[in-house]
Amino acid sequence: MTVSQTPSIPFTTTEALATLHETCETAGLASQDARLIRLGENALYVLPTHLVVRIARSVEVLGDVRKEVAVSAWLNNSGIPAARTTPHYQPLIVRGHPVTLWHLIPHSDSPRPPTTWPASYANSTA
Q1: Which SUPFAM superfamilies does the entry mention (predicted)?
Q2: Beta bridge partners of 97
């Protein structure tokens, strides 16, 4: 059995909101009018500037968060459409939570056609 070495802070909307405000202050972003999208394994807030603040429950998932940021960068640098992080240093650790900042993906009723994917990706999956 693995025993957590991280102090247990309940992950409530109050804790998530405090983390959001501190993150935005650190990153030079306005947190007013932020809207909670979801509170589950992560808290997701969308800012009026069309950025998404993703707050993980605990620092225990820091390795996974770092991989997500690295994979996003790799996909985008390879020309493969994927969620993009903002240029801020990431992940941030705020109040004991790994936090990442992402560009909002606009809602679309239809997926992007495969013809828009780079040929190198299409060829590697064939």
Answers
A1: Protein kinase-like (PK-like)
A2: 94
Residue 18: both structure tokens together: 């405090």
Nearest CA among 68, 71, 12 for reference residue 43: 12
pLDDT of residue 3: 40
DSSP H/E element including 43: strand 42-46
Residue 77 has a CB neighbour count (10 Å cut-off) of: 9
Residues 71-109 pLDDT 10s: 999 999 999 989 999 999 999 999 999 999 999 998 756
Give me 60's structure tokens: 């225990």
CA-to-CA distance for 64 and 14, rounded, in angstroms?
A: 24
Encoding tokens for residue 71?
């994979």
Q: Which two tokens stand for residue 62?
A: 């820091």
The model scores a pTM over 0.85: no
**CA 94/CA 99 separation, integer angstroms:** 7
